[in-house]
Amino acid sequence: MDLTRAIHSRRSIRKFKSKNPDWRDIIECIDATRYAPSAGGYNVLKIILVDDLEKIKKIAKAAEQDFIAQTQYVVVICSDTPRLANAYGKRGEIYARQQAGAAIQNFLLELEAKGLSTCWIGHFVESKIKEILEIPDEVDVEALFPIGYEFEKKYSRKEKKNMDSMLYFNLYGQRKMRERGKIDI
Ligand SMILES: Cc1cc2nc3c(=O)[nH]c(=O)nc-3n(C[C@H](O)[C@H](O)[C@H](O)COP(=O)(O)O)c2cc1C
What we know:
This protein is of the alpha+beta class. The protein has helices spanning 3-9, 23-31, 53-62, 81-88, 90-113, 126-133, and strands at residues 45-50, 73-79, 140-147. It has one domain (3-158): NADH Oxidase, CATH 3.40.109. It is 36% helix and 11% strand. Residues 11-12, 14, 65, 119-123, 156-157 line the site of flavin mononucleotide.
């Protein structure tokens, strides 16, 4: 799939078909995370592919979102943040969040390219997720991703923001681009 098409067509999906995805496809999508930028080249991501249905039920409960339990696979993305904080101090914590976001977007676009769907789950009780998956205390759980095939038609709960409400030129708040000279070729 063309990259621009994948960027534009990706949507959060909260209703899935019973059809089971091929785990190899999911592994390939996880592999895409390795190509995202990382501060100083320290990739501190730790990723858990969960296919134990009992655990998935518990994860859905810890996230207070029942639809997660419709899926046969949940990908849990974590950061071993202290490794970055050791190298960069307080900013290391910011870098951990930023590089997890970049890696997650690679993951989402690769899922989209393979015709798979998910929803980024950021609302969960972290201590419960850690307990279910035996994640060490110092590791941060960034997000959860139930994976399946979309049942509902893609739509966004909200319209996407217009460019002119977010893009400024040269100064914060300046909406007008300066006059550009003609390009002589
Ligand atoms: C950091 C973050 C946390 C999110 N947490 C949840 C969540 O817990 N549950 C949920 O249903 N959607 C969650 N979402 C998905 C957003 O609701 C969704 O991306 C947004 O409504 C835009 O829709 P779209 O993804 O279809 O473009 C989260 C998204 C982000 C980026």
